[in-house]
């Protein structure tokens, strides 16, 4: 069920002022794949994700989506094309209710009846959100906000979902739930690019993986093979 290349990043460079955080990164994601991007703090994973989704300008290289360069396109232009990111730290609208946040996720759509059906679907995936549907998002726990952020992103019916450290700061039970949902979303045919500190869990559910270090991709391959690679285990799995 793996299709053609959907997202192709080549020679990507991103800087903050004079400091280069991403120094020429190449990777690709095929249709129907779940690809995990791992690496230690400050390796440039978040910067890469932001550049791909149009929230940071790129200094060099190219980003192709569906066979065309999307360089310079803004975040919401890309949401319209099905390329959607759930940012690190969630980014939910804290002063809106759960339901309003989910409705906002569907702002590119005008099929009211189907939007209502999809909100129901999110409440089925995340029963906690249904229980709290009229509560302000800012009053929810970190794990609940992560669920809401994922639900909101899914409301746009993305082709590719980019998740930036969805398990960060969550309790073990919440981490399990989030990984379960990521697997389900992928099983339903959404292509997923997952950035995670939790390398073993991230590689455990992925088809392929990439390791980033100091702004560069230093390793890549089949996720299961990477999981058993002594170098990966030593550096990222605490062995
Ligand atoms: P983390 O898991 O900690 O988020 P990361 O791999 O996602 O790590 P980035 O957040 O992309 O790493 O950071 C890459 C480098 O860019 C780091 O050295 C960081 O200090 C730097 N950096 C990130 N954001 C900014 C910014 N807004 N201004 C200046 N430097 C930044």
Automatic annotation (TrEMBL):
SUPFAM superfamilies: P-loop containing nucleoside triphosphate hydrolases (SSF52540). It holds the Pfam family ABC_tran. It comes from the Bacteria. Residues 7-239 form the ABC transporter domain. InterPro entries: AAA+_ATPase, ABC_branched_ATPase_LivF/BraG, ABC_transporter-like_ATP-bd, ABC_transporter-like_CS, BCAA_Transport_ATP-bd_LivF, P-loop_NTPase. Coiled coil: none annotated. GO terms for molecular function: ATP binding. The keyword Cell membrane applies. Gene3D superfamilies: P-loop containing nucleotide triphosphate hydrolases. Belongs to the ABC transporter superfamily. This is Branched-chain amino acid transport system ATP-binding protein. It comes from Rhodoferax ferrireducens.
